[in-house]
Design goal:
Blueprint (H helix, E strand, L loop, with lengths): L20 E9 L5 E5 L2 E5 L7 E9 L4 E10 L12 H4 L9 H19 L24 E9 L2 E7 L6 E3 L8 H16 L5 E2 L4 E2 L1 E8 L6 E7 L7 H11 L3 E8 L11 E7 L2 E6 L2 E6 L8 H15 L5 E6 L5 H6 L3 E8 L2 H13 L5 E5 L2 H10 L6 E4 L8 H10 L3 E6 L2 H10 L4 E9 L9 E8 L1
Parallel strand pairs: 3-5, 12-13, 17-18, 17-20, 18-19, 20-21
Antiparallel strand pairs: 1-2, 1-4, 2-3, 4-5, 6-7, 6-11, 7-8, 9-10, 11-12, 13-14, 15-16, 21-23, 22-23
Keywords: Methyltransferase, Transferase
EC number: 2.1.1.190
Organism: Rossellomorea vietnamensis
Length: about 475
């Protein structure tokens, strides 16, 4: 009779239990800013841990393919670890990397790009030109817009951000990544609400009246815009609230109300009502001036936006002879930035209001060789190709979901010589690069830090036709 031997346990069969503690070496920073390590070949994510650190962790959540844990003890600290200057850093969740030196953050962001390429492509990274991340001289107070949720605490109105994975609202008096004026204005509005007992919650209906205070500042002009997001049209003591904002905050030149009755993560609803002052504020980037209405999209870091757009311009390498398509053009920002080097610009977007603004901006900036169209690239570019018009350069700045496959298929058909891809998500950028790999090669990738203290990274990718 054959002897029966007990099957050797495989690493992958090891069960990790909730609240289990074990030592862990952190290998890298993950795409959400957490430390990443491996225990018995299983991936473990640890918020607040840094690459190279040796830590003891306690398991907080077990998932089929990964585990979440928290630091119990740091046995060996990273030389890049610093004390986070924000008093509510660990509660708020708005930033993920304040405990990492700024030089370390820039290295980590380049590494996040490398991880995305490793995961989603088969490119030989050692042969690629992946440049160091372009950072800021002062990586604080850079955000031009705050969206602070409103609530009550001990009978007083508070405003801030919700703690990570929680419904606990953290009252924030000073957010150190926000422009000081946005902090000043939000705090004063809180004070007005409390001074005059303006209710922000309807006890009868058991729902908020005032949901969010949105404050935006023009860095170059000093103009401030306030949008009060409410659950319904009626604001108790509205005239008093408006007059006190005007009296106490002369820098606020535009006040609007947005109505969002839905219980949703989206801040804005469909209806916006102008309450006082101008309908928009002005912002300047180099020689361009932009009108920003209550819901107009604009980059959140004006200081780095110029650097980002100049990198796109560098990648396009225009000589004055090129025809350029600005897909996902919005209000025409990037295309107009490139216009002085192009023979012709054609922009497109599916949102008509954006195209209307793009036409106004082109007129205002005196750009006569730019035309704007409502529609998608997958419809317009083949049509233009059939008419004998073909772009030399296509520039895109898509949402976090990346480029639509129909757009990428259109690129394969139309074959512009240069494709400049401005990405806010390295994972979708890598997937799109992989989709185009037979037709286009990556000349270089340039990460840009638009959001210091967070794990977000923007990338300008230059792809050229093979």
């Amino acid at each position: 009779m054959k002897k029966q031997y007990a099957k050797k346990p495989q690493h992958n069969d090891v069960k990790i239990e909730l609240k289990q503690q074990f030592p862990l070496t952190i290998k890298k920073i993950g795409i959400n800013g957490e430390g990443v390590g491996f225990f018995k070949r299983k991936i473990v994510f640890v918020p607040g841990a840094l690459a190279g650190e040796e830590v003891v962790v306690e398991v907080t959540k077990v998932h089929p393919k990964f585990t979440e844990a928290r630091i119990k003890k740091i046995r060996k600290k990273s030389p890049q670890r610093v004390k986070a200057p924000c008093p509510v850093y660990e509660l708020c969740g708005g930033c993920q990397l304040q405990h990492l030196s700024y030089e370390g953050q820039l290295d980590a962001k380049r590494d996040i790009l490398l991880q995305s390429l490793e995961r989603h492509t088969k490119l030989k990274l050692e042969d690629m030109d992946i440049r160091p991340t372009i950072g800021m001289d002062n990586p604080w107070h850079y955000r031009n817009k705050s969206q602070f949720q409103v609530g009550t605490q001990n009978g007083k109105a508070i405003a801030g951000l919700y703690s990570m994975n929680s419904n606990k609202l953290i009252d924030i008096d000073e957010c150190i990544v926000q422009h000081p004026l946005t902090n000043k204005v939000t705090n004063e509005i809180k004070r007005i609400i409390n001074d005059f007992n303006i209710p922000v919650f309807d006890d009868k209906k058991k729902k908020p009246i005032l949901k969010t205070i949105v404050t935006r500042v023009g860095f170059e002009t000093g103009e401030v815009q306030v949008v009060l997001v409410t659950s319904e049209k009626k604001i108790p003591r509205k005239e008093l609230l408006i007059s006190e904002i005007q009296k106490r905050l002369p820098e606020v030149v535009s006040i609007a109300q947005n109505i969002n009755p839905q219980k949703t993560a989206l801040v804005f609803g469909d209806e916006t009502i102008h309450l006082s002052g101008k309908e928009s504020i002005e912002e300047r980037l180099e020689e361009f001036t932009y009108e920003l209405s209550a819901r107009a999209f604009f980059q959140l870091n004006p200081i780095q936006t110029g650097k980002l757009y100049n990198e796109a311009k560098k990648a396009a390498a225009l000589t004055g002879e090129e025809r350029v398509v600005d897909a996902y053009c919005g209000v025409g920002t990037i295309g107009l930035w490139l216009a002085d080097g192009a023979k012709e610009i054609r922009g497109m977007d599916v949102i008509k209001e954006g195209i209307d603004d793009a036409k106004k901006n082109a007129k205002k900036f005196g750009v006569e060789h730019a035309e704007y169209f409502v529609g998608g690239a997958e419809t317009l570019m083949p049509k233009w190709k059939n008419e004998g018009w073909r772009p030399d350069v296509v520039v895109v700045d898509p949402p976090r979901t990346g480029c639509d496959n129909k757009l990428l298929d259109t690129l394969k058909e139309v074959k512009p010589k240069t494709f400049v891809y401005v990405s806010c998500n390295p994972s979708t950028l890598a997937k799109d690069i992989d989709y185009l790999k037979k037709q286009y090669r990556v000349e270089y990738l340039q990460p840009v830090d638009m959001f210091p203290q967070t794990a977000h990274v923007e990338v300008v990718a230059k792809l050229v036709l093979k």
